[in-house]
Design goal:
Layout lengths: L22 H6 L3 H14 L6 E2 L1 H10 L9 H9 L5 E2 H8 L9 H8 L9 E3 H10 L6 H7 L5 E3 L8 E4 H15 L2 H5 L7
Helix pairs in contact: 2-5, 6-9
Length: 198
C-alpha cells in the first residue's frame, strides 16, 4: 500500500506579543495616550537611542532646545542626573514625569476614602494619625512625600476629646484638590478670561 503524503500546511507567523506595560507604569495607572506621550518625550531626550538618557543625551537635548553650549556646565548636568533614578531608562522616566499626568479621583471618591479616618463623623481627621498611617501602611510614603501631599491641607484644632490635636478638614481638602484639578484642566481657556471652575 502506498501512502500519500499529506500536503504541508504553512503555519501563519504568530503575531509578535505586544510589549506589556512596565510594573511602574501600571502602578501609576497611566492610560495609553499619556504613555505614548511620555514615550515620545523620552525618545526626544534619548539622542543615541540606546534606551537610556545619560549626561550626553541631556547635554544634546539642552542644546537642541536653544541653550548656549558654553552655558552648560558639567556640574549642572551631574546635579540634574543625580536627581533622577539611575539608569534613567523609560521606566525611571515615567516615574520621574508620569506622576504629573495622573488624574485625581472624583471629589466624592476622595472624600469617601479619607472618611475612613473620621471616627466621629465631624469632617475632621487627626493629622498625626493620618501622617503615621501614610508612612506605615500600604504603599508607604516617605516623610517628604507626606509633607508634599498635605501642604495644602486645611488644618485646625480639634474640639471636645480632640481639642489639643491638629485636625485636617478633609472635606475642604478634597474640595481644594479637586478645585485645583478643574482649574488646571485647560489653561488655554484661562488666557481668554473664561471661568474654567465648575
Amino acid at each position: 500500500m502506498a501512502t500519500t503524503a499529506e500536503p504541508e500546511v504553512e503555519e501563519e507567523p504568530k503575531p509578535k506579543p505586544k510589549r506589556k506595560p512596565s510594573k511602574r507604569s501600571l502602578e501609576l495607572e497611566i492610560d495609553d495616550e499619556k504613555l505614548n506621550q511620555l514615550k515620545e518625550a523620552f525618545q526626544i531626550f534619548d539622542f543615541d537611542h540606546d534606551g537610556v538618557i545619560d549626561k550626553n543625551d541631556l547635554r544634546k537635548s539642552l542644546i537642541a532646545m536653544g541653550q548656549d553650549i558654553h552655558d552648560i556646565h558639567e556640574e549642572e548636568l551631574e546635579k540634574m542626573m543625580s536627581e533622577a533614578c539611575q539608569p534613567l531608562d523609560f521606566d525611571a522616566f515615567i516615574m520621574l514625569l508620569g506622576y504629573r499626568t495622573i488624574e485625581l479621583d472624583p471629589e466624592e471618591v476622595l472624600r469617601d476614602a479619607l472618611s475612613r479616618w473620621d471616627y466621629d463623623g465631624s469632617g475632621l481627621i487627626s493629622e498625626e494619625k493620618f501622617r503615621s498611617d501614610l508612612m506605615c501602611l500600604g504603599d508607604k510614603f516617605s516623610e517628604k512625600e507626606v509633607n508634599m501631599a498635605l501642604e495644602d491641607a486645611p488644618v485646625t484644632k480639634g474640639f471636645g476629646f480632640y481639642k489639643d490635636i491638629r485636625m485636617i478638614d478633609y472635606v475642604k481638602f478634597c474640595h481644594i484638590l479637586c478645585g485645583l484639578r478643574k482649574k488646571t484642566r485647560d489653561p488655554s481657556l484661562e488666557e481668554y478670561g473664561l471661568d474654567v471652575s465648575v
